Amino acid sequence: MITCILFTLAILVLHQYDRVLIEKPFVHLLAWLGTFSYSLYLSHTIILPFIEQINKRLGFAGATYWISFMIQVVLSIAIARLFYLLFERPFMSSPPPKTERDAEVAAIVSPAP
Q1: What is the pLDDT of residues 46-63, one digit of tens each?
Q2: Within a domain: residue 79?
Q3: Does 112 or 93 have the greater pLDDT score?
Q4: Are 96 and 35 in contact (CB under 8 A)?
Q5: pLDDT at position 41 over 90
Q6: 11 found inside a domain
Q7: What is the structure's pLDDT at 97?
Q8: Could you tell me if 68 and 60 are in contact, meaning their C-beta atoms sit under 8 angstroms apart?
């Protein structure tokens, strides 16, 4: 319960900085990852065991495990993005806007509930 209250307070306090934060490259990276996060969720549990076996055969363990971890992250993101483009996105109701102007027009024409 206390976590919920603290999180709510953090959102209320940080809301005033939305316009500043949205311009940060890190936020753009998070938004990009967010577009295919469901594909990442679906694919990572299948991909990671295979990558782990390959890394073990290559000898990435102990002090070099960070190399294995980075390979897992990069490949998981790459495969999830490919999965999103090939399978998830074609079945979405409408394609994402191509430009910022298209996004603004779409928001005006069909506002979110």
Answers
A1: 888 888 888 888 887 777
A2: yes
A3: 93
A4: yes
A5: yes
A6: no
A7: 63
A8: yes
Residue 39, domain member (yes or no): yes
Task: Kindly indicate the confidence band of residue 9, based on its pLDDT and cuts at 50, 70 and 90.
Answer: very high
**Number of domains forming the structure of the chain:** 1
Whole-number Å distance between alpha carbons of 39 and 32:
12
Nearest to residue 54, comparing CAs of 67, 39, 38? 67
Query: Cα(76)–Cα(39) distance, rounded to whole angstroms?
Result: 10
- Cα angle, residue 49 at apex, residues 34 and 91 outer, rounded to 5°: 40
CA distance 18 to 20: 5
- CB-CB contact of 50 with 71 (8 Å): no
In the structure encoding, which two tokens stand for residue 60, read together?
């990435």
What is the reported pLDDT for 17?
Answer: 84
Domain of 34 in residue numbering reads as 25-109
Compute the mean pLDDT over every residue in the chain, rounded to the nearest whole number: 82
Residue written as tokens 């316009």? 19
- Please state, in angstroms and rounded to a whole number, the distance separating the CA atoms of residues 80 and 86: 10
d(CA 55, CA 67): 9
Q: Considering the domain boundaries, does residue 55 fall inside one?
A: yes
